[in-house]
Amino acid sequence: MTPTHPVDVLLLLHHDDRVLLAQRSGTGYADGQWNLPSGKLEHGEDAITAVLRETHEEVGLHLDPAEVQMVATVHHRNTTGHARIGLVFTAHHDPDRHGEPVNAEPHKCARIEWFPADSLPTATYPYTSACVTAWRTDTPLQLSGWTHPHPA
């Protein structure tokens, strides 16, 4: 069987030593857990356009394409064995230029909040934790949810 791995774009919006997370709610999957603003690449859409779209849809911010930088790829497998590929982008949040992020999808998100990058909440979804770890450790490819060790 040919594997299918959805491609996600994840935004690691940071300000000082903090990152913006959203608490999932009402989706039926990982509700109550914290995750990065993110979503799937849509058919015919490039990764930059996708991360800009998801940023606006989820936290109401308009970023310029030059403000986002891809920093890592995360290959995540969830507890049911389904895998996906995540393209992790960062952007520095400038409140004077961007305004304040808002919960633009209250039907999918209970709230948004800033957290220290080195002290994420215990209820952070493992995929998000892996993305933050990859960014903080400058790791271009991060595995998450795979039980076998990878070659050094």
Automatic annotation (TrEMBL):
> What keyword terms does UniProt attach to this protein?
Hydrolase
Please provide, alphabetically and separated by semicolons, the GO molecular function terms listed in this UniProt record: hydrolase activity
InterPro entries per the UniProt record, alphabetical: Nudix_hydrolase, NUDIX_hydrolase-like_dom_sf, NUDIX_hydrolase_CS, NUDIX_hydrolase_dom
Is the keyword Hydrolase assigned to this protein?
yes
The cofactors it requires, by name, are: Mg(2+)
What SUPFAM superfamilies does the record tag this protein with? Nudix (SSF55811)
* Domain of life according to the entry: Bacteria
Residue span, Nudix hydrolase domain: 3-144
What family does this chain come from, according to its entry? Belongs to the Nudix hydrolase family.
| UniProt-recorded name of the protein | ADP-ribose pyrophosphatase YjhB (NUDIX family)
Q: What is the lineage of its organism?
A: Bacteria, Bacillati, Actinomycetota, Actinomycetes, Micromonosporales
